């Protein structure tokens, strides 16, 4: 399992998630199953986990446990699944009250398995990988399609918004110029197209931003996250926990805003008495960060932020 992915902020996230060892929990991002395994180890025989992943490699490699149900789909549909499971006989329980899950965990982004598999095209470390980057291998949109067919202005927007790339306009122009001579098929083609904008000795810093931007677009990560937060919040029982680990500022801002206001824009709505109408309540005001020790053992933990919220009973 550790070869597939080393789980980040494991003890902190799992302790925050579990409020009832007989409860029903969702792991929205199964990956190598590190978080799920830790949750299962703390549940009783009646406890259960429903785990989602849109990558079939994750589902196929899953551990077997009678308390675990796997769903090969996008976590944005979590509310539909919660409704379906709540009605199904296998999941029928005495509690017919509001909500379904006692806790929902999401550990966003890509797994080490995805990142380290050259053919998946997520990493610029492999020079001639196909420009793919799909988390769900059955999805239509690939990174090649984005770089070869998007309008230059859209490329610029993606680079700026999702990658915070300096000089996004110039970079979009370089991509457009290169593709008009020849289609960009591999990571090497892309890197050569933008080579002029890669500072010598620190190429990887800019490339990391460019690849992040493309990955977010290919997988429509922001849209999925927004739908997920809405659905997750409605699927939680009152008092149930939402635990989210993010890896970049855009994601973290969306999660923070949602916890504060109930929408990703962070617009606070009040009732006629001036009471804030947010369905969640923050459990930790500031995000929990990995220790230096954890980062030293797992560099992928370095940008992680953990936010924990609880479903209010009264909204
Ligand atoms: C950081 S990894 C999770 C690692 C996992 N916590 C572990 O301990 O092994 C993120 C996983 O979430 C999946 N994922 C990302 N976005 C998703 C989405 N919208 N729907 C379903 N799965 C998603 C990815 O395919 C990847 O396997």
Give the strand order of the largest sheet, numbering strands 1, 2, ... along the chain.
Answer: 3-2-1-4-5-7-6
Oligomer: single chain
Report strand %.
Answer: 5-15%
Helix count from the secondary structure assignment:
13
3D shape? globular
Question: Which residues form runs of ≥5 with pLDDT under 50?
Answer: none
What is the CA-atom radius of gyration, in angstroms? Answer: 20 Å
Structural class: alpha/beta
What proportion of the residues is helical, as a percent range?
Answer: 40-55%
Instruction: Report the count of strand segments.
Output: 7
Q: Write the element-wise H/E pattern from the N-terminal end onward.
A: HEHEHEHEHHHHHHHEHEHE
Q: What's the main sheet like?
A: 7 strands, mixed
Structure explained in plain terms:
There is one protein chain. By secondary structure, the chain is an alpha/beta fold. It is about 40% helix and about 15% strand. It contains 13 helices and 7 strands. It has helices at about 10-15, 35-40, 55-60, 80-85, 110-115, 145-150, 150-165, 170-180, 185-195, 205-220, 220-235, 250-260, 290-295, and strands at about 25, 50, 70, 100-105, 235-245, 280, 305-310. Helix 3 links the parallel strand 2 and strand 3. Helix 7 (about 150-165) crosses helix 8 (about 170-180) and helix 11 packs parallel to helix 12 (about 250-260). The longest helix has 16 residues, at about 205-220. The relative contact order is 0.14. The mean pLDDT is about 95. Bound molecules: S-adenosylmethionine. S-adenosylmethionine (SAM) binds near residues 34, 35 and 54.
């Amino acid at each position: 399992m550790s070869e597939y992915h080393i789980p980040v902020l494991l003890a902190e996230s799992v302790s925050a998630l579990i409020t009832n060892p007989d409860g029903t929990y969702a792991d929205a991002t199964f990956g190598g199953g590190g978080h799920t395994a830790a949750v299962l180890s703390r549940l009783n025989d009646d406890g259960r986990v429903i785990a989602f992943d849109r990558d079939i490699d994750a589902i196929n490699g899953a551990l077997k446990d009678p308390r675990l149900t796997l769903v090969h789909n996008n976590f944005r549909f979590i509310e539909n699944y919660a409704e379906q499971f709540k009605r199904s006989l296998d999941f029928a329980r005495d509690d017919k009250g509001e909500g379904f899950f006692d806790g929902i965990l999401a550990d966003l982004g890509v797994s080490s398995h995805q990142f380290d598999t050259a053919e998946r095209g997520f990493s610029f470390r492999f020079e001639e990988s196909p420009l793919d980057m799909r988390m769900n291998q059955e999805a239509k949109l690939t990174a090649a399609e984005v770089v070869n067919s998007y309008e230059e202005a859209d490329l610029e927007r993606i680079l700026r918004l999702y990658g915070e790339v300096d000089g996004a306009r110039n970079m979009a122009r370089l991509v457009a110029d290169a593709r008009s001579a020849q289609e960009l098929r591999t990571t090497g083609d892309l890197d050569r197209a933008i080579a002029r904008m890669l500072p010598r000795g620190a190429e990887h810093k800019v490339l990391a931003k460019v690849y992040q931007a493309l990955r977010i677009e290919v997988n429509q990560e922001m849209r999925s996250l927004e739908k997920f937060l809405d659905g997750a919040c409605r699927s939680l029982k009152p008092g149930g926990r939402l635990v989210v680990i993010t890896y970049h500022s855009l994601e973290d801002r969306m999660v923070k805003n949602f916890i504060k206001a109930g929408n990703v824009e962070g617009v606070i709505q009040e009732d006629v008495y001036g009471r804030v109408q947010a369905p969640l309540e923050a459990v930790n005001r500031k995000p929990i960060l990995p220790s230096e020790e954890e980062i030293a053992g797992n560099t992928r933990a370095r940008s992680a932020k953990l936010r924990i919220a609880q479903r209010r009973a009264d909204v």
